[in-house]
Amino acid sequence: MSFNTFGRVFRFTTWGESHGPALGAVVDGCPPGLALSEDAIQPFLDRRRPGTSRFTTQRREPDAVRILSGVFDGRTTGTPISLMIENIDQRSKDYSDVARAYRPGHADYAYDAKYGFRDYRGGGRSSARETAARVAAGAVARAVIAEVSIRAWVEEIGGDAIDPANFDAEQIDANPFFCPDARAAQRWEVLVDQARKAGSSLGAIVACEATGVPAGWGAPLYAKLDSELAAACMSINAVKGVEIGDGFAAARLTGEDNADAMRPGSDGPQFLANHAGGIAGGISTGQPVRVRVAFKPTSSILTPVPTVTPGGAATEIATKGRHDPCVGIRGAPVVEAMMALVLADQKLLHRAQCG
Amino acid sequence: MSFNTFGRVFRFTTWGESHGPALGAVVDGCPPGLALSEDAIQPFLDRRRPGTSRFTTQRREPDAVRILSGVFDGRTTGTPISLMIENIDQRSKDYSDVARAYRPGHADYAYDAKYGFRDYRGGGRSSARETAARVAAGAVARAVIAEVSIRAWVEEIGGDAIDPANFDAEQIDANPFFCPDARAAQRWEVLVDQARKAGSSLGAIVACEATGVPAGWGAPLYAKLDSELAAACMSINAVKGVEIGDGFAAARLTGEDNADAMRPGSDGPQFLANHAGGIAGGISTGQPVRVRVAFKPTSSILTPVPTVTPGGAATEIATKGRHDPCVGIRGAPVVEAMMALVLADQKLLHRAQCG
Amino acid sequence: MSFNTFGRVFRFTTWGESHGPALGAVVDGCPPGLALSEDAIQPFLDRRRPGTSRFTTQRREPDAVRILSGVFDGRTTGTPISLMIENIDQRSKDYSDVARAYRPGHADYAYDAKYGFRDYRGGGRSSARETAARVAAGAVARAVIAEVSIRAWVEEIGGDAIDPANFDAEQIDANPFFCPDARAAQRWEVLVDQARKAGSSLGAIVACEATGVPAGWGAPLYAKLDSELAAACMSINAVKGVEIGDGFAAARLTGEDNADAMRPGSDGPQFLANHAGGIAGGISTGQPVRVRVAFKPTSSILTPVPTVTPGGAATEIATKGRHDPCVGIRGAPVVEAMMALVLADQKLLHRAQCG
Amino acid sequence: MSFNTFGRVFRFTTWGESHGPALGAVVDGCPPGLALSEDAIQPFLDRRRPGTSRFTTQRREPDAVRILSGVFDGRTTGTPISLMIENIDQRSKDYSDVARAYRPGHADYAYDAKYGFRDYRGGGRSSARETAARVAAGAVARAVIAEVSIRAWVEEIGGDAIDPANFDAEQIDANPFFCPDARAAQRWEVLVDQARKAGSSLGAIVACEATGVPAGWGAPLYAKLDSELAAACMSINAVKGVEIGDGFAAARLTGEDNADAMRPGSDGPQFLANHAGGIAGGISTGQPVRVRVAFKPTSSILTPVPTVTPGGAATEIATKGRHDPCVGIRGAPVVEAMMALVLADQKLLHRAQCG
Predict the structure, then answer these.
(1) Residue B148 predicted with pLDDT over 50
(2) Which of B32, B271, D105, D297: disulfide with D201, CB 3.0–4.6 Å?
(3) B131–chain A Cβ distance below 8 A for any pair
(4) Model pTM greater than 0.95?
């Protein structure tokens, strides 16, 4: 596994910068014979696409995907699937300030420290625009795990959480926040609007659930399903925390309260609870696989923040470019994609070893 | 990277079961010429070793490590370092119940679902005993990153947290809880004793900090330092959550509050805060690298829990074998080891690409 | 390392089919700050390009490379370099026969046996056209190992070998055969013309030498420099044999005749011979690294050969499409590329471990 | 894949030096439920074991293997299988000369150039003794591919080849040379005896055939079955060449002579010849998979050879330690092991992708 590749058997490699001509992904190891077309991938990209509401960046990108290889007569051939998305709305001039000073909280300084220089246009490789390539690859992964349903939603924005009692899956795609609680969505509209107008930003928590995962996917000890999910989610821009099942809350429970008791069922054991988030010993249990992901507020804010120049002088920087007031919102389809990519890989790995 | 191997250039592979003759690790890719001996590794194993206080499992294991290869005249040769630890105190009879019923919350059912059967003695490969091999490998990693200091501590047990105002690094090794707050340590003594006597168990939160990491380690996008740390920590038994820097709390901050402003310093930029936990864009910033890890309460409790047999019948199981009342306590040296292993790998990866 | 990826730290992934819209490579792990442009890559592609003489396939492809990512202001940034080459002259109609019968010696049957179906247009993924992507990636690799000079030539066509006494490096690029022996080049003109006109094909042997490789690249035991070179060369279409140094001839020498005696030199040991091809114990010795590669005659011939249809019926097939009468000729720049790719990876690996 | 690990899904890692306390292999990714015991592995080690005739090194090693993990109740559990072989007959004093001067043709100088120093006892990690670990791992691989039969033999020693007309598989284990031609075996007895008494050494060519490999194992383009075999065989000590099928001879055939024509058969296509060695496009065709491997004469000879000291002074060295007069002989069981290891990995990879 190299710097820009993820997966063990079902693998994808992404490439591209925010303001280069294009970005893309190469998906390798995909089983042959699966139906796949650009039309099947595009809807996933459209959910992540910027510029669809005033609550996301105003950069206008059609994010139209092209399949350049690996598909013949509408079916995957088993050879690498090359996916390309052209960058259209680049406006590089917006980013001239970024060349002259490090944006605190962004990767600017770290890239310079590592590589000696950087592509400063829109964050270059560190831009969240890369997640479009993941979402495209994730759409391929979904074809590999047709038995699994994956659904992500936003649980909390700026500390304002949904009420679990109001959870309604139908709502998720009915508002611009992927919010399953209609009342919370109304509150968030005000909240995010305020942040947007103030040039501020808000953090968010995204939850994701995969149902239909059979018991037995995952492996000890460094290919554990939860370990892979943690790596996948923590690799997304702005993510600072990952929980499986009850996560940090489990650390405050007793063994009795945290027990996932079982009873016989017609189709294998039934569990009375799912504190574990569908994973035990790194292997799926047949229950829904659950992950929660914390997105920090983006560091692109209008308030000037003290910083330094590449030359080492003190200065201030305010981020005037287009950006998301709450980057976690568009994180929901990205977390879904990472869940799909991990599960597809684990399915094939399981098949490799256990037939 | 395979099932039981971790790392990209500095890699280790662990093997062994709780009740087999031995367990161990093979460390590959270690730079040559580093001083290494069994005496240098043993102290790290001794910190993790069970049976040292009444707050850990009473299994008595000397955990004496042998170096079988890769060291000549007291120095690493650059070839694989094979580390072996013999199992001494196995008492397999304690585990006969485990063969007859799945322990809820343990890997028993998941292993059977995956592999068709399992080594049920002490959890087999899923036992936390495997972490001894990680700690031994971690001691080798420390020799690779001599410029880095790593320190882990327990921040919370059973929901009872330390008071940051009382943080005293000297305390960490002065009590059986790796607790930096002397007063919290006193409270935990009562708390863990109660749980132990009741045959119950408690969760815990472990924090770990690495200082001395230069800016520039890590890489986009799937070899991000935070992604690697998340994978490493989530692969530890009983871990259900990982945070970098402010973690989930960052999701409740505004962009202004979360900003890590910089000013010029004599030795590169100085940061006014470290919300990011020393990592931006997946690359170290030169600040302390900080991770927090949630351990669930172990599922080994005396209270009978409803479960099923491998044959599918309803039954109950109570865990009478020796176990840790709070497995997170001994997690502290394990998290330290994983931090060292990730950083050693990232150091070498950085050297590979950036000279 | 996955199906279509090669390398450990400096890695490349290729994608694309003979008759798809494009093919390409993603190069990951490239050091930052190296000068790179399309103009620097194109000459290597031009050497491999078809249609430049009557001795290669008449498919006319400009093989113009585009850099889509990883380069900023004319220098590599350290992020993935995406290289794309559009297919222009596809004439898919030529290949309708191939859909109806397996071409013996080609991958047709094997692909169907593996994947259940195949992209039959021009061999799909199994086409030698994929080697364009390798050559593009190889040009990037050369920038990584500027201290090394790599030169390949054709040593033998159809059993007619060069005379080592006539070896003249200047000749290599002075004829369409990459032949260092001007007289042999004249003979080959006749030989290959005959084969071409008869619709037959010829095998060839390509030699490649890298000078300037310092002692110390490579590693025991499964990252040996010779093992990597063997894998790299054997992965090229039509290759059936690989030799390092004296290769099979060494198996007929005594230990005395095969000895590479050393004497002191001003710049490390001097070797009196180089039977070993510059590699001992899998690690470079500082002598020229030498590899020889056997290319079979392409199976695309006009003579009808008995075969079967996908349905299992007996038939015959003659290959009328455009093809190389001696595919080994254009193998020379491909072997050069693979040598560069392996050495770049080994250089970075050595730097990772040995600083 | 790291320095001392081979394979993608079915992977093994070897460790150990010639004169350390032990050597071994960790096999990861083995399917669960396979019968495995030390008794099943030992016969393969016994075939490779030194000291069994006067034609091999006189070092006396029982090469008794211990299984330390991954097997429970006589079956593989799916977790890592740790195999250990203790070194018994080490006589380190024999190798004092080697510390003081580089043996030409050995890895001595290359190791020093790479690592700065080396374990000079018996060649340390570069000793052919490491192949014992491969053979043990190979025995596990055989259990994974029970449908495949693998047989290697020596085809040529010191330039004296077997007569294919005399090929008798029964003979292979009936003489100390793994020679299928009884008359050649008699000649070799004289030949090798002469070399042994003269303190000289001879090269050899080993052939290996796997029958029962179904069509469809292998993958484009860098996981090609032939590419993997080439890497595997070239990683064996003293190997300088690898051929698949007709190998270098194919480079001298025309396309007509090299054609592997097919006709319908009851069980898939029948092939009229097998020039390709059972592999087309990197994927198995269902025919026997054939590889030939060239072993150089060992560089350990009694005749003094000019060399240099680590300090750079001129000297001579003669190798007086115990060694094989023809290291290729014991190469036969090692090539078999590598064939088994590659095929096991490819079988599981095929299952991963193609179900």
Answers:
(1) yes
(2) D297
(3) no
(4) yes
